[in-house]
């Protein structure tokens, strides 16, 4: 048996018509405020920061005194989105009669997102990592510094000196030279950071050129092509005879340096052959 979806639709319409505002807030007629851009809240950021931004925006509406409570509440609710809008819709009906009540409920709901106040202790706890660039550390230091109201210069300088890596050139600078103020110290730090980056870039260029030169040298020393013979030629004349002559050739040795007529080995072999022949003739009957 099919059931009608009409009752669910009626219930949904009824729920959208409910409001947590009292009649005093919901029924107040407001003056035209013009095009004001209000901050939106979705339920995942610092609620205190949102309230501050909202108060700045609504101050431009110039609502009449008798309109302010209603205007603040309604404009605030109109700029909730996502889970924050669902939270507001779930508030008890007729439970909000002024902006203070709405803000209290809002802060209670999203207190988990309230950021803790930044103090000088946060500066003191900030430390430069062993391989962290000085500029990266100084940028973090500046970000924390900007969040601290009425920062004491002396405490901040001590925190800076304490946080810089022990072997840093900038730490040496702070130890040797008296720095007038925190702004002066941060200005000096920027110069040291720039120097650190220049040195790193030059080192990188040097290593790149050195590696390129090494590769070029190694490619010139190529191995002989397969099948190609290498010959070691002894140009020394230490063991050569004084009669050595490249213009003469020996048929017996098959090389240059002396003639066949001058070759002692050829003459010796000729004599031996002649002796053997004479010996054979003497043995004949």
TrEMBL record:
Record field: transmembrane: none
Location of region: Disordered: 212-285
Composition bias type Polar residues, residue spans: 233-245
Top-rank taxon, per record: Eukaryota
UniProt cross-references to InterPro entries, sorted A to Z: Retrotrans_gag_dom
Biased composition (Low complexity): 212-226
Extent of Basic and acidic residues compositional bias: 258-272
UniProt domain Retrotransposon gag: residue ranges: 74-164
PANTHER family: CCHC-TYPE DOMAIN-CONTAINING PROTEIN, OS04G0172440 PROTEIN
Record's protein name: Uncharacterized protein LOC130498126
Organism listed in the record: Raphanus sativus (Radish)
Gene coding for it: LOC130498126
